[in-house]
């Protein structure tokens, strides 16, 4: 196989494995698009800094969902970048890592595996622990009693689920614990061997996020939140409907929810401050018609597509038709394939459409 044939083979394989990813420059030092993980399409862009071919210097940019998945795992990603010889290898590793993180972010109640039998003290210890913390804190469990969730209330009366996976060597081994918090718990702190430790630790952790949750609850109550559709306690981003096909996306800092860069907003809530700045009153689901907000995509004819909302619109003032970014990508690639548009022209089209 000569160099030209190999380059063609490489391009075809990349297109087959990652059909929604394309190079955004002629030197292929930057890629952008979507990576599909467990049926979810996550938008991201990766760039090599200073025209260096070394992936160690690469910068990764992504959607809020992608940022949430990789938060706390930056070191592992950096190690993969240093170990991979090219983009193709890193794309495969990134997809595997995201699948792993996405799987862990799902409630542990859904995970069932065929494992060895538990130790002789497993069930007796578990019963004693539940007696100690109170059975009212047990929210749910699976038939094997290997996975369970505890229900905790914070000082504001919010209910939180703490998912616990017990190894069959329990109580000798550490528990695997997961909760929907704005900032993940480091593995060093998340080393607990009893349910009493879990309740004590997470009861204190929940109090750290009272301010940011109060701000987010105020937004959820008084505005029409487009995304996330069903916000989790770990979600710090909100996309708020403004009316007339416009929306505002904000993301709070968990440690300083009223702060923005060097500025700090006092007394008023985040919602009230934005209303004052924009000189509007945010519409809510009770004060605005659904047809004013839910404008379907001009390609797939649906409003919500694979978890995302239309985020691109036609620049023609007489049109203004919204589209999903992923639908535009797919449609353009179909047209490119039908009319045999080469990569250079395709990149030009994408740039003209502000999709690169």
From TrEMBL:
Entries under SMART domains matching the protein: FANCL_C
Fanconi anemia complex subunit FancL WD-repeat containing domain sequence ranges: 15-99
FANCL UBC-like domain: residues covered: 121-209, 212-259
One of the protein's GO biological processes: protein monoubiquitination
A single GO cellular-component term on record: Fanconi anaemia nuclear complex
GO molecular function (one): ubiquitin protein ligase activity
FANCL C-terminal domain segment(s): 294-330
Pfam family, one: FANCL_d1
Protein name: 7115_t:CDS:1
Organism: Cetraspora pellucida
